Amino acid sequence: MLEKKAKNREQVEFICLENLVPQDHLLRKIDNAVNFDKLYEFVEELYCNDNGRPSIDPVILFKMVLIQHLYGITSLRKVAAEVSMNMAYRWFLGYTLNETTPHFSTLSYNFRHRFNSDTVDKIFNWILDEIAEAGYLNAEAVFIDGTHIKANANTKKKIKEEVPTAAKRYAKELLEEINADREAHGKKPFEDDNDDNDKPKKKRDNTSKKKLKRRKQEAKNKIVTKSTTDPESGLFVKGEHKKQFAYEAHTACDRNGYVVGVEVTPGNVHDSVAFDEVYEEVTERFPEVETIVADSAYKTPHICKKIFDDGRVLSTAYKRPITMKDGHEWWKYVYDEYYDCIICPEYQILKYSTTNRDGYREYKSNPTICKNCPTREKCTKSKSCQKTVTRHIWNEYIELAEDARHTPKYKELYKERKEKIERVFADAKEKHAMRYTPYRGLTAVRNWVRLKFVAMNLKKFAIHKNMERKRKEGSFNFTFCFLNYYNLIFKNQKLEIQLS
Q1: Angle at CA 493, nearest 5°, toward 490 and 494?
Q2: What is the distance between the alpha carbons of residues 15 and 25, in angstroms, rounded to a whole number?
Q3: pLDDT tens for residues 326-375?
Q4: Which residues face 293 on adjacent strands?
């Protein structure tokens, strides 16, 4: 009995992992898709060559995290346990059955303290470069949207806190155009509230007391709900969704479903606010982008102006204007560009009044005429019987987006949105465990999300590359078989001729 056990042990020692991992296994495809030695260039400066104990190979550490995101494993501790038991994982990492795999604390320490955001960005860009060089990227049309990720924070543990109102990135450009528009209409320009000059400013009577009071209230710090567990997350409130602390991954993908850019923000940041960073990251890397496909949340004057000024097109959906309940339809108020006025449904003129600080021109009616209007109740409920219609100074860019919306080419592109960016989010949450984040803090969550998209891009790239290889081999085998068949027929005919 003891001799039999000893023989079995000897047989186990000679088992080859290469023979146990199926040839069509996903990890085999990934291992053949890219050369992981490239990772040494990204982490070389993070290691010391002549000091300390020998470290675990950084390629092994990255591959372990890759396994976590590929198979949707929720923690590094589980990854370390799975690696020690799974033969395919051992083969992928280069460990034999007798070797000890890395401890989870080593893996956790390196990705928390050694590999920083710059390292993660380099890995993300490297995979994209590999995909682009292979010809699988199609960045002519880019699909942009955001998805929420539940934070590792209890909704009940929260406080109210005052935070300074964030300045808009385009505030200076907007103010310059507002002042130019006001001067063109004979109005005095606004002063810049963010100007830090020490010189005393002269008071100007170009704003009413009511508007000055409103401006002062808006300039004050706004009150937000913050989590005491993870203060960098944001309270996500939307429609019938349950209130929760979350982060939002603002993501861009190409027509083949590869993620080409991502920016992570707190969950209370609107999609249109985070658009600039995602857009600049994608267009700087892929200047060949022609069309931006996004939902109606991105249909703002600033975003439309930014995209069309860059020579690109925004393909988006219809956005219903906000109008008074049971009132006149918005399209019944017609803008006359030549006379710069609004014509109401009763064919009365609303003249230009002013351009406010938000960039909207205000057109106001004559109260004397409105008093006796038969449809005044459907138009305004103002005590002064005056109707005000606003129109943004960048409204022509929104009209360009509307024209693109009715164009067959961009209409078809928008239909693909649910098959591209929405599928990316569905796969990330259902197959790769991106519905909840185990990390806290914006930096940690950002690195976690980008590594998850690295795994998704690499998985798709490996599958596409393997399919192409099989297709080439299949065509080669077909040609080879056809030539053999042709040669055999030719030899038989030659033999028959000789015999006859």
Answers
A1: 85
A2: 19
A3: 889 989 999 999 999 999 999 999 999 999 988 999 999 999 999 889 99
A4: 143, 315
Q: Quote the Cα angle for 450-455-457, to 5°.
A: 90
pLDDT digits (tens, 9 = 90+) for 78-132: 999 999 999 999 999 999 888 899 998 988 888 888 898 999 999 999 999 999 9
Rounded Cα distance, 381 and 475, in Å: 74
Instruction: State the CB neighbour count (10 A cutoff) for residue 106.
Output: 16
The closest alpha carbon to 136, from 287, 33, 32, belongs to 33
Q: What are phi and psi of 485, to 5 degrees?
A: -65, -40
In the block, residue with structure tokens 């005044």:
376
Of 490, 33, 330, nearest to 498 by C-alpha is: 490
DSSP reduced 3-state for 361: strand
**Left if phi > 0, otherwise alpha if psi is -120 to 50, otherwise beta: which for 453?**
alpha
Question: What are the C-alpha distances in Å from 196 to residues 151, 170, 191, 213, 357?
Answer: 38, 18, 12, 21, 19
Chain-centre distance for alpha carbon 345:
42
* Cβ contacts of 301 within 8 Å, gap of 6 or more: 359, 392, 393, 394, 395, 397, 398
Distance of alpha carbon 33 from alpha carbon 131, whole angstroms = 10
Note the pTM of the prediction, 2 decimals.
0.84
**Cα distance between residue 115 and residue 109, in whole Å:** 9
Sign for the pseudo-dihedral over CA of 483, 487, 489, 493? positive
- Residue 266: half-sphere exposure toward Cβ, Cα within 13 Å: 18
Neighbour tally for 491: CB within 10 Å: 10
Q: Report H helices in 265-317.
A: 271-285, 301-309
